[in-house]
Amino acid sequence: MIQQLINGIATWIKPMKIKPPNTRDIKYLFLHTTGTSMDATPDAMRKYWKNKLGWKNPGYHITIDKYGEAHHLLPFDKIANGVRGWNKNAIHISTIGGKDGTDTRTEQQKLALSWWVKKLSSEYTDIVIKGHRDVYGPDKSYWKKSCPNYDVTKWLKEDNVL
Ligand SMILES: [Zn+2]
């Protein structure tokens, strides 16, 4: 009788099991710039996405401030709104700054960004690292955005990130 009860409860619990984190099929890591002043805050970003753009989820999973501190905006198992059409399989990380299309990353931001690139590359061994604008192809005239305002492939090589 007790065994039956346990079995009954077990079959009832099974479908309710909560998904463990990071069950998404991660294929891409996108690097972004916020395209704002260096002093933009994660709170202001959240407000902008929610109130101005009407987005349910943030644009990035992580944003890195000028001191190199990473602010977590969304867990990796949730989908962020970084690049339309690519989000389902992507993690998005931005550095705060990049106003007027320039690369304004501080040394601390570059260090923190390389740390995350290294960490995620070792966790997801097949991950492809791209800059936002890379989805539009190599021809500048097709770029809808200049984000992240630097050549990601070149930076990864030059700074020996990977
Ligand atoms: Zn972007």
Report on this structure.
By secondary structure, the chain is an alpha/beta fold. It has one domain: Lysozyme-like, CATH 3.40.80.10. It is built from four helices and five strands; from the N terminus they run αβαβββαβα. It has helices at about 1-15, 40-50, 105-125, 150-160; strands at about 30-35, 60-65, 70, 90-95, 130. The longest helix has 17 residues, at about 105-125. The model has no long low-confidence stretch (mean pLDDT about 90). The chain binds zinc ion. Zinc ion binds near residues 32, 132 and 145.
Second CATH tier, the architecture? 3-Layer(aba) Sandwich
**Number of DSSP strand runs:** 5
Q: What percent strand?
A: 5-15%
Compute the separation of the termini in Å: 59 Å
What's the helical proportion of residues?
25-40%
How would you describe the shape?
Answer: elongated
How would you sum up the major sheet? 5 strands, mixed
- Walk across the major sheet and give the strand order: 3-2-4-1-5
Structural classification:
alpha/beta
- CATH topology descriptor: Lysozyme-like
Unique ligands: zinc ion
CATH class wording: Alpha Beta
Report the CATH superfamily: Peptidoglycan recognition protein-like
- Note poorly predicted spans: none
List the secondary-structure elements in sequence, H or E: HEHEEEHEH
Domains counted in the coordinates: how many?
A: 1
